[in-house]
Design brief:
The structure is a homodimer of 115-residue chains.
Chain A: H1 18-26, H2 31-37, H3 45-51, H4 57-69, E1 73-75, E2 81-83, H5 85-93, H6 96-110
Antiparallel strand pairs in A: 1-2
The first copy, chain A, binds a DNA duplex (30 and 30 nucleotides) through helix 4.
Chain lengths: 115, 115
DNA sequence: CCTCGATGCTACATTTAACGTAGCGGCAGA
DNA sequence: TCTGCCGCTACGTTAAATGTAGCATCGAGG
Protein backbone atom coordinates (compact mmCIF):
# COMPACT_ATOMS: atom_id res chain seq x y z
CA UNK A 1 0.00 0.00 0.00
CA UNK A 2 1.46 3.29 -1.01
CA UNK A 3 1.28 6.18 1.31
CA UNK A 4 -1.05 7.93 -1.08
CA UNK A 5 -2.89 11.18 -0.64
CA UNK A 6 -1.64 14.54 0.47
CA UNK A 7 0.09 15.54 3.66
CA UNK A 8 -1.89 13.29 5.93
CA UNK A 9 -5.16 11.95 4.71
CA UNK A 10 -7.59 11.36 7.47
CA UNK A 11 -7.11 7.81 8.62
CA UNK A 12 -10.09 5.73 7.77
CA UNK A 13 -11.10 7.90 4.89
CA UNK A 14 -10.03 5.11 2.58
CA UNK A 15 -12.73 2.92 4.05
CA UNK A 16 -15.33 5.08 2.43
CA UNK A 17 -17.14 5.39 5.71
CA UNK A 18 -17.25 9.05 6.62
CA UNK A 19 -17.76 8.24 10.27
CA UNK A 20 -14.30 6.71 10.32
CA UNK A 21 -12.74 9.80 8.86
CA UNK A 22 -14.60 11.93 11.36
CA UNK A 23 -13.70 9.73 14.32
CA UNK A 24 -10.07 9.89 13.28
CA UNK A 25 -10.10 13.64 12.84
CA UNK A 26 -11.77 14.17 16.20
CA UNK A 27 -9.55 11.55 17.77
CA UNK A 28 -6.48 13.68 17.50
CA UNK A 29 -5.19 15.54 20.44
CA UNK A 30 -6.90 18.84 21.21
CA UNK A 31 -9.30 18.65 18.30
CA UNK A 32 -12.42 18.07 20.36
CA UNK A 33 -11.19 20.54 22.92
CA UNK A 34 -10.66 23.26 20.33
CA UNK A 35 -14.15 22.87 18.96
CA UNK A 36 -15.42 22.95 22.50
CA UNK A 37 -13.58 26.13 23.39
CA UNK A 38 -14.85 27.90 20.30
CA UNK A 39 -18.44 27.16 21.24
CA UNK A 40 -18.99 30.59 22.75
CA UNK A 41 -17.71 32.56 19.77
CA UNK A 42 -14.54 33.36 17.92
CA UNK A 43 -11.22 33.49 19.70
CA UNK A 44 -7.84 34.73 18.62
CA UNK A 45 -5.19 32.09 18.21
CA UNK A 46 -3.53 33.20 21.40
CA UNK A 47 -6.76 33.28 23.38
CA UNK A 48 -7.58 29.84 22.06
CA UNK A 49 -4.17 28.68 23.12
CA UNK A 50 -4.77 30.02 26.59
CA UNK A 51 -8.18 28.38 26.72
CA UNK A 52 -6.62 25.06 25.76
CA UNK A 53 -4.27 25.02 28.70
CA UNK A 54 -1.43 26.56 26.68
CA UNK A 55 -1.15 23.99 23.96
CA UNK A 56 1.98 24.33 21.95
CA UNK A 57 1.30 26.56 18.96
CA UNK A 58 2.64 23.87 16.68
CA UNK A 59 -0.22 21.50 17.39
CA UNK A 60 -2.71 24.29 17.67
CA UNK A 61 -1.92 25.49 14.17
CA UNK A 62 -1.93 21.95 12.86
CA UNK A 63 -5.36 21.27 14.33
CA UNK A 64 -6.72 24.59 13.15
CA UNK A 65 -5.53 23.84 9.65
CA UNK A 66 -7.16 20.42 9.75
CA UNK A 67 -10.37 21.84 11.15
CA UNK A 68 -10.39 24.56 8.53
CA UNK A 69 -9.87 22.06 5.75
CA UNK A 70 -12.68 20.01 7.21
CA UNK A 71 -14.90 23.07 7.11
CA UNK A 72 -15.53 23.26 10.83
CA UNK A 73 -13.48 26.32 11.64
CA UNK A 74 -12.71 29.52 9.80
CA UNK A 75 -10.48 32.50 10.29
CA UNK A 76 -12.61 35.61 10.45
CA UNK A 77 -11.98 38.73 8.44
CA UNK A 78 -10.74 40.80 11.32
CA UNK A 79 -8.81 37.89 12.82
CA UNK A 80 -9.89 35.30 15.31
CA UNK A 81 -10.99 31.73 14.80
CA UNK A 82 -14.61 30.78 14.91
CA UNK A 83 -16.85 27.86 14.13
CA UNK A 84 -18.48 27.71 10.74
CA UNK A 85 -22.18 26.81 10.61
CA UNK A 86 -21.07 23.25 9.97
CA UNK A 87 -18.70 23.44 12.89
CA UNK A 88 -21.49 24.65 15.10
CA UNK A 89 -23.56 21.72 13.98
CA UNK A 90 -20.72 19.43 14.92
CA UNK A 91 -20.53 21.01 18.33
CA UNK A 92 -24.22 20.62 18.91
CA UNK A 93 -23.95 17.02 17.83
CA UNK A 94 -21.70 16.11 20.68
CA UNK A 95 -23.13 18.63 23.07
CA UNK A 96 -25.06 15.93 24.93
CA UNK A 97 -21.64 14.73 25.92
CA UNK A 98 -21.58 17.57 28.39
CA UNK A 99 -24.43 16.26 30.44
CA UNK A 100 -23.19 12.74 30.05
CA UNK A 101 -19.82 13.78 31.41
CA UNK A 102 -21.36 14.89 34.66
CA UNK A 103 -23.25 11.68 35.14
CA UNK A 104 -20.07 9.88 34.26
CA UNK A 105 -18.13 11.65 36.96
CA UNK A 106 -20.68 10.58 39.52
CA UNK A 107 -20.37 7.03 38.30
CA UNK A 108 -16.62 7.42 38.57
CA UNK A 109 -16.61 8.21 42.26
CA UNK A 110 -19.36 5.71 42.91
CA UNK A 111 -17.53 2.90 41.18
CA UNK A 112 -14.55 1.49 43.02
CA UNK A 113 -11.23 1.45 41.24
CA UNK A 114 -9.26 -1.67 40.68
CA UNK A 115 -9.04 -3.46 44.04
CA UNK B 1 -11.52 17.72 44.73
CA UNK B 2 -8.30 15.97 44.06
CA UNK B 3 -9.34 12.85 42.30
CA UNK B 4 -5.89 11.98 41.06
CA UNK B 5 -6.27 8.36 40.23
CA UNK B 6 -3.68 6.02 38.81
CA UNK B 7 -0.80 6.28 36.41
CA UNK B 8 -1.76 9.18 34.25
CA UNK B 9 -4.69 11.24 35.32
CA UNK B 10 -6.87 12.35 32.47
CA UNK B 11 -5.69 15.71 31.29
CA UNK B 12 -8.14 18.38 32.23
CA UNK B 13 -9.43 16.47 35.18
CA UNK B 14 -7.70 18.97 37.39
CA UNK B 15 -9.99 21.65 36.09
CA UNK B 16 -12.89 20.01 37.87
CA UNK B 17 -14.89 20.08 34.66
CA UNK B 18 -15.76 16.51 33.80
CA UNK B 19 -16.31 17.43 30.16
CA UNK B 20 -12.62 18.27 29.91
CA UNK B 21 -11.62 14.91 31.29
CA UNK B 22 -14.00 13.20 28.92
CA UNK B 23 -12.84 15.19 25.90
CA UNK B 24 -9.28 14.34 26.73
CA UNK B 25 -10.01 10.66 27.18
CA UNK B 26 -11.94 10.46 23.94
CA UNK B 27 -9.37 12.64 22.21
CA UNK B 28 -6.74 9.94 22.33
CA UNK B 29 -6.00 7.88 19.31
CA UNK B 30 -8.34 4.98 18.66
CA UNK B 31 -10.48 5.63 21.71
CA UNK B 32 -13.53 6.80 19.83
CA UNK B 33 -12.97 4.15 17.23
CA UNK B 34 -12.82 1.38 19.80
CA UNK B 35 -16.09 2.43 21.37
CA UNK B 36 -17.55 2.61 17.92
CA UNK B 37 -16.43 -0.87 16.96
CA UNK B 38 -17.85 -2.36 20.12
CA UNK B 39 -21.27 -0.94 19.40
CA UNK B 40 -22.56 -4.19 17.95
CA UNK B 41 -21.52 -6.38 20.85
CA UNK B 42 -18.47 -7.79 22.53
CA UNK B 43 -15.33 -8.56 20.57
CA UNK B 44 -12.21 -10.44 21.47
CA UNK B 45 -9.07 -8.39 21.70
CA UNK B 46 -7.88 -9.77 18.40
CA UNK B 47 -11.16 -9.23 16.63
CA UNK B 48 -11.21 -5.71 17.98
CA UNK B 49 -7.71 -5.21 16.70
CA UNK B 50 -8.78 -6.40 13.28
CA UNK B 51 -11.79 -4.11 13.34
CA UNK B 52 -9.57 -1.18 14.17
CA UNK B 53 -7.42 -1.58 11.07
CA UNK B 54 -4.82 -3.67 12.93
CA UNK B 55 -3.89 -1.22 15.62
CA UNK B 56 -0.78 -2.16 17.45
CA UNK B 57 -1.71 -4.22 20.49
CA UNK B 58 0.27 -1.85 22.66
CA UNK B 59 -2.09 1.04 22.10
CA UNK B 60 -5.09 -1.21 22.02
CA UNK B 61 -4.35 -2.54 25.47
CA UNK B 62 -3.59 0.92 26.74
CA UNK B 63 -6.90 2.26 25.47
CA UNK B 64 -8.81 -0.72 26.76
CA UNK B 65 -7.30 -0.22 30.17
CA UNK B 66 -8.23 3.45 30.15
CA UNK B 67 -11.74 2.67 28.96
CA UNK B 68 -12.13 0.01 31.59
CA UNK B 69 -10.98 2.35 34.31
CA UNK B 70 -13.42 4.90 33.00
CA UNK B 71 -16.17 2.33 33.25
CA UNK B 72 -17.05 2.29 29.59
CA UNK B 73 -15.69 -1.11 28.69
CA UNK B 74 -15.45 -4.40 30.49
CA UNK B 75 -13.87 -7.75 29.90
CA UNK B 76 -16.57 -10.40 29.90
CA UNK B 77 -16.48 -13.60 31.90
CA UNK B 78 -15.79 -15.84 28.96
CA UNK B 79 -13.43 -13.38 27.34
CA UNK B 80 -14.13 -10.59 24.91
CA UNK B 81 -14.48 -6.90 25.43
CA UNK B 82 -17.84 -5.25 25.53
CA UNK B 83 -19.42 -1.96 26.41
CA UNK B 84 -20.80 -1.50 29.87
CA UNK B 85 -24.24 0.08 30.23
CA UNK B 86 -22.43 3.36 30.77
CA UNK B 87 -20.31 2.73 27.72
CA UNK B 88 -23.40 2.08 25.69
CA UNK B 89 -24.81 5.35 26.90
CA UNK B 90 -21.64 7.05 25.76
CA UNK B 91 -21.94 5.48 22.37
CA UNK B 92 -25.51 6.59 22.00
CA UNK B 93 -24.47 10.05 23.04
CA UNK B 94 -22.25 10.53 20.05
CA UNK B 95 -24.28 8.33 17.77
CA UNK B 96 -25.76 11.38 16.01
CA UNK B 97 -22.21 11.91 14.81
CA UNK B 98 -22.84 9.12 12.36
CA UNK B 99 -25.51 10.96 10.48
CA UNK B 100 -23.59 14.16 10.78
CA UNK B 101 -20.56 12.51 9.22
CA UNK B 102 -22.46 11.73 6.07
CA UNK B 103 -23.73 15.26 5.68
CA UNK B 104 -20.21 16.41 6.36
CA UNK B 105 -18.78 14.31 3.57
CA UNK B 106 -21.21 15.86 1.13
CA UNK B 107 -20.13 19.28 2.31
CA UNK B 108 -16.56 18.12 1.84
CA UNK B 109 -16.91 17.34 -1.84
CA UNK B 110 -19.11 20.38 -2.35
CA UNK B 111 -16.56 22.72 -0.84
CA UNK B 112 -13.50 23.47 -2.97
CA UNK B 113 -10.19 22.44 -1.48
CA UNK B 114 -6.98 24.35 -1.69
CA UNK B 115 -6.83 25.86 -5.19
C1' DC C 1 -0.35 -36.47 27.90
C1' DC C 2 0.45 -33.43 24.15
C1' DT C 3 0.00 -30.54 20.53
C1' DC C 4 -3.01 -27.04 18.33
C1' DG C 5 -5.24 -22.94 18.24
C1' DA C 6 -7.09 -18.93 20.34
C1' DT C 7 -7.30 -15.94 24.28
C1' DG C 8 -5.48 -11.62 26.87
C1' DC C 9 -1.40 -9.24 27.27
C1' DT C 10 3.67 -7.61 27.10
C1' DA C 11 8.72 -6.29 25.26
C1' DC C 12 11.19 -3.51 22.54
C1' DA C 13 13.20 -1.06 18.78
C1' DT C 14 11.53 2.32 15.36
C1' DT C 15 8.78 5.93 13.67
C1' DT C 16 5.67 9.59 14.34
C1' DA C 17 3.27 13.09 16.95
C1' DA C 18 3.19 16.44 20.53
C1' DC C 19 5.64 19.62 23.40
C1' DG C 20 8.16 23.96 24.69
C1' DT C 21 10.52 27.84 23.66
C1' DA C 22 11.78 31.24 20.78
C1' DG C 23 11.07 34.15 17.11
C1' DC C 24 9.39 35.94 12.46
C1' DG C 25 6.72 39.54 9.49
C1' DG C 26 2.65 42.34 9.63
C1' DC C 27 -0.38 45.69 11.35
C1' DA C 28 -2.84 49.00 14.50
C1' DG C 29 -2.55 52.34 18.17
C1' DA C 30 -0.07 55.46 21.28
C1' DT D 1 8.82 54.97 16.00
C1' DC D 2 8.05 52.07 19.49
C1' DT D 3 4.85 48.87 21.80
C1' DG D 4 1.88 45.24 21.64
C1' DC D 5 -0.85 41.86 19.71
C1' DC D 6 -1.97 39.23 15.49
C1' DG D 7 -1.32 34.59 12.84
C1' DC D 8 2.16 31.56 12.13
C1' DT D 9 6.78 28.94 11.90
C1' DA D 10 11.58 26.70 13.28
C1' DC D 11 13.62 23.48 15.82
C1' DG D 12 15.41 20.60 19.48
C1' DT D 13 13.37 17.63 23.14
C1' DT D 14 10.07 14.51 25.05
C1' DA D 15 6.19 11.54 24.87
C1' DA D 16 3.15 8.51 22.26
C1' DA D 17 2.01 5.32 18.61
C1' DT D 18 3.59 1.72 15.45
C1' DG D 19 5.11 -2.93 14.04
C1' DT D 20 6.77 -7.29 15.01
C1' DA D 21 7.52 -10.80 17.93
C1' DG D 22 6.53 -13.42 21.74
C1' DC D 23 4.76 -15.06 26.58
C1' DA D 24 1.47 -17.54 29.73
C1' DT D 25 -2.98 -19.70 29.88
C1' DC D 26 -6.89 -22.23 28.77
C1' DG D 27 -9.99 -25.73 26.16
C1' DA D 28 -10.79 -28.93 22.54
C1' DG D 29 -8.99 -33.03 19.81
C1' DG D 30 -5.79 -36.28 18.74
Amino acid sequence: MAKMAAKHAVRGSRTGRPIMALLDLLGRRWTLRIVWELRGGALTSRALRAACDEVSPTVLQARLTELREAGFVELGEGGGYGLTPLGRELFETFLPLHRFAERWQKAQVATPRRP
